[in-house]
Amino acid sequence: MAEELGAGDGTFEAFRRAEALVAQQRPLDALAALEPVLEVVTNAPSVLLLAGRAYLGSAQFRRAEAAFRRVLELDPTDHYALFALGKTLQRQHRLTEALPPLRMAVAMRPLPEYQEALGEVSARIAVEGGSW
Q: For this UniProt entry, which segments traverse the membrane (predicted)?
């Protein structure tokens, strides 16, 4: 990953700082730290995933959706991007759209977190009839 981020120019350090800020639930600070990285490294799935997580954490759902969709264009087998896209769509109350990526994420890697998200969306669709 260091090669992908240009380890010698400070990009890698900025990425790591942004990663720590997301882990500390400081998504806006993470996005500020990540901004120079996004300008230099435009198609690295790791950078796009981190940006998507920060966008999601700061309720910038359209940007999060775009970031996760771009990751999936680059790597359709990224189960976490599928899960995160599903959660992003769920947060936008687009429940029927959230189902396919969540189902795919569960099929690829049946992690409890993925299964729980799929169960939540499925139950809400059953109760509410699809979307709000």
A: none
